[in-house]
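Issue 218. Parser rejects a valid record. Input:
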Amino acid sequence: MTSQVRGSQLARLLGQWHALPGRRRSPDYAALAAAVRGLLADGRLPLGVRLPAERELAEALQISRTTVSAAYRQLRETGHLASRRGAGSWTMLPGTHRVATSGLWAPLDDRDMIDLGIAALAAPPELVPAARAAAEDLPRYLGGAGYHPTGIIELREAVAQGYTDRGLPTQAEQIMVTSGTQHALDLVLRLILPQGGGALVESPTYPNGLAALAARRARIATHGLAADEVGWDGELLLGSLRQSRPKLAYLIPEFHNPTGHLMAADLREKLVATAHTAGTDLIIDESFVDLPLDRTVLPPPTAAFDRHARVITIGGMSKPYWGGLRIGWIRASVPLVQRLAAVRVGMDMSSPVLDQLVAVHLLAVGPTIVAARRRQLTAQRDVLIEALAEQLPEWRVTVPRGGVTLWAELDGPVSSALARAAEDVGVRLAPGPRFGLDGTLERFLRLPFTLPPADLVEAVGRIAAVRYDLDRATASRWRDPVVIA
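Output the parser choked on:
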């Protein structure tokens, strides 16, 4: 699924490459090569993508072809570019380094650890009353076998009503209840993605989404997101769909995990139209759609622009309610829901009835719960940003308009080293490379603001303390893998 970036597109990604730090000490070709390496390091330029011809890039940057030739030569020497006569040049990392995509591990609980690896809230106070009410409702289901592959009707109706309230008319028959959003993604992949099929994802993206794709041995192409508030480069994203024509694209347009970006309505519309032309199914992950902050107005759901049943939407209770309540769902066409149910019965039959009843009662008071969550998250986000500005002023953070995470750009490519050092002082971190495919994103770190303010301030203080010691050589040792969620 090798795709190509055009000269004008690469020029836009490079921006003011000639004004980068240290520019006056470097010749033009070295500065250009360094800028391309920077794009690779932060994941904005995918690996395995073919770069424009030297003449094309020279014209786009309005520099000499000799300068571009020298830059490409240096990139080949450093292992960031591979070239073959007649075939062009494509991006890579030195030693073809890759990082495993699985982000799901199960460490022992450590109550003394401040865990910033998991972006999820504690349960709301309404959960216990909802569980009691669900237990009272349970007897009317006990006379049957308890298997409901698409979910109990009350929950499907409640979820469908939620979509309708957002301007996307939905019937209960279009909803399938799953055991969490991750389960929803896995079911969809089992049905529509053949082993070794092509898939397009954002970079960075949700690690467990990459793990699910890896389980299908998918051929994954990436679209690099900018660190600023814009996020998606529409021309590049749509161009990737047209060029590679993947079987599916897995995207997170609402408060993207981990960057917090929100996709604009016009790009959503173009995305759906382009996907239809390319023959690509869109899996839209709406895990964070209930959590806009700062009075942010949400664009229409991506599926609102769908006229050809190309959009499959997944969501669930984990982020706005509680991760321990393993309730998710899929919104799709009625025939697709029936096909998904047929796939499911060979796996786990159905979600627990009692959990589904709890979800029904929670959704009934959902507006109250979600409003409180938004206030809580806004306050905790602001505390985290203030602590970072005070103790780590060299880091750059774009304030997210929703969701539960910050995507911090560090003062150097030290994310993995920082995560190892932070664990020694009782802070568990999710380093940038865990959210990518090829060992890039070392300049980035995901920081959720789901913990109490005091814990966030304490965590930043500990991180700042170890950050300034990273330049000293330390002996590495084996560490237990951690949960990234």
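Fixed in the parser; the record now loads. The radius of gyration is 23 Å.
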